[in-house]
């Protein structure tokens, strides 16, 4: 069995194990988007809590529990433990989001009819809707394909989309780890032919500078 087969076999087991969780986390993503359109007193904390939970889930369950022992290699170079390192990054991101968004209340999301609003909307739709369509068109079908909510790549795109909707200045630390994972998006394209992750790469190299610009403009 090849390393690619090992990855997709593990992914299939993971997806089949957490079918109810896929439905729940997709619904949470819809709620997070709704709250950015219908802002209320506690909507920002709920949105941050949802994001934080999704990152912690991917870090602990996807990476550590399921993929930690899966081998990874690129250009003939084996990278043992890479999934555990990825898990640490995702857990750290989840903690950062909870810290800044729930505890400190410094993450505030609101959809606006400007370039940041529309770029954010494009990334959100890509993560939740277009990502699986690209997978289907390139020969992948569920459960042997990453899905929004319980897989890290569409979650990263979704997060970079929501961060376009910030309407209050905050620490740029919340965007660093999503940028790192997005830049690494070329790896699943090259190794696993997950072509939808071209969008992951672009969400980082295009989306992150826009987030920086947005943060400088905010009060």
Textual characterization of the structure:
This protein is mainly α and 219 residues long. It has one domain. 70% of the residues lie in helices and 2% in strands. It has ten helices and two strands; from the N terminus they run H-H-H-E-E-H-H-H-H-H-H-H. Strands 1-2 form a two-stranded antiparallel ribbon. Helix 4 (82-103) runs antiparallel to helix 7 (173-183). The longest helix is centred in the first third of the chain and has 25 residues, at 43-67. It is globular. The mean pLDDT is 94.
Count of extended strands = 2
Rg from Cα? 17 Å
Enumerate the strands of the largest sheet in spatial order, edge to edge or round the barrel: 1-2
- Taking pLDDT < 50 over at least 5 consecutive residues as the criterion, the unreliable ranges are none
The main β sheet shows up as: 2 strands, antiparallel
Shape: globular
Helicity level, as a percent range? over 70%
In brief:
This protein has 219 residues and is mainly alpha-helical.
Give the tags.
219 residues; mainly alpha; two-stranded antiparallel sheet
Topology (SSEs and partners):
Elements lengths: L2 H15 L1 H19 L5 H25 L5 E2 L2 E2 L3 H22 L11 H23 L14 H12 L9 H11 L2 H7 L4 H9 L1 H11 L2
Antiparallel strand pairs: 1-2
């Amino acid at each position: 069995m090849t390393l690619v087969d090992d990855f997709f076999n593990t992914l299939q087991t993971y997806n089949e194990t957490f079918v109810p969780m896929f439905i729940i986390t997709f619904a949470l993503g819809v709620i997070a988007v709704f709250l950015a359109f219908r802002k209320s007193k506690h909507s920002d904390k709920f949105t941050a809590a949802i994001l934080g939970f999704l990152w912690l889930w991917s870090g602990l369950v996807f990476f550590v529990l399921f993929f930690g022992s899966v081998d990874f290699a690129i250009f003939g170079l084996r990278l043992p433990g890479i999934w555990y390192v990825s898990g640490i990054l995702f857990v750290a991101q989840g903690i950062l989001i909870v810290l800044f968004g729930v505890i400190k209340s410094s993450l505030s999301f609101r959809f606006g009819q400007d370039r940041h609003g529309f770029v954010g909307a494009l990334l959100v739709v890509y993560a939740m809707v277009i990502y699986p369509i690209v997978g289907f068109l390139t020969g992948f079908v569920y459960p042997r394909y990453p899905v929004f909510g319980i897989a890290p790549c569409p979650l990263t795109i979704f997060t970079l989309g929501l961060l376009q909707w910030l309407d209050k200045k905050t620490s740029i630390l919340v965007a660093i780890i999503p940028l790192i994972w997005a830049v690494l998006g070329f790896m699943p394209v090259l190794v696993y032919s997950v072509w939808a992750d071209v969008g992951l790469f672009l969400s980082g190299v295009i989306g992150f500078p826009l987030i920086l610009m947005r943060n400088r403009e905010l009060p």
